[in-house]
Structures are given as C-alpha cells and as structure tokens.
Amino acid sequence: MRIGSSIALIVIGAIIAFAVDYQVAGIDLRLIGYILMAAGVVLLIISLAVGFGGRRTTTTTRSGIDPASGEQITRQDRRDGTY
C-alpha cells in the first residue's frame, strides 16, 4: 500500500468513527473506525519509511577486448535513484 491508500484508510475510519450514526447488532462501528484509522497511520509510517529508505546505487561492470588494438577495456555504469 502506498501513501494514498493509507490516507484513504484514515479518512474512511474517521467517517465511520465520528460521522456514522447507525447501530448494528453485535458490531461496534466506532471501534471499527478507530481500528481503520490506526491501520492507516501504521501503513502511512511504513510507506514513508520505505519510500525514503529505498535509495540504491547500481553499478554494472563490463569487460572486453578491443578488436582493433587488442587491449582490455572495462566499462562501469553507475545508476543512482529510487526504485
């Protein structure tokens, strides 16, 4: 889940907890709203932690021999970014 889904859970939970005035036998809608809000907050924290901690550097090394000169050539490609 990403940040948008987490915020959606928080909003849906808040609506159920604070705005719904409907009684269901055996089900506490206010508690379900609080649980959804707590799950949304936890997932938001996880999404932010993974998003900021996901920076990686990839280095690719290729070696070969130049056919014209016969010298060994090594090429390195380095890519920085988030995945």
UniProtKB/TrEMBL annotation:
Query: Which Pfam families is this protein grouped with?
Result: DUF6458
Q: Where is the DUF6458 domain?
A: 3-66
Asked if the record carries the keyword Transport, the reply is no
Q: Where is this region: Disordered?
A: 55-83
Bias (Basic and acidic residues): 74-83
User: Where are the annotated coiled coils located?
Assistant: none
Keywords linked to the UniProt accession: Membrane, Transmembrane, Transmembrane helix
For this protein, the record's InterPro entries field holds:
DUF6458
Question: TM segments?
Answer: 7-25, 31-52
Q: What is this protein called?
A: DUF6458 domain-containing protein
Q: Which organism is it from?
A: Curtobacterium oceanosedimentum
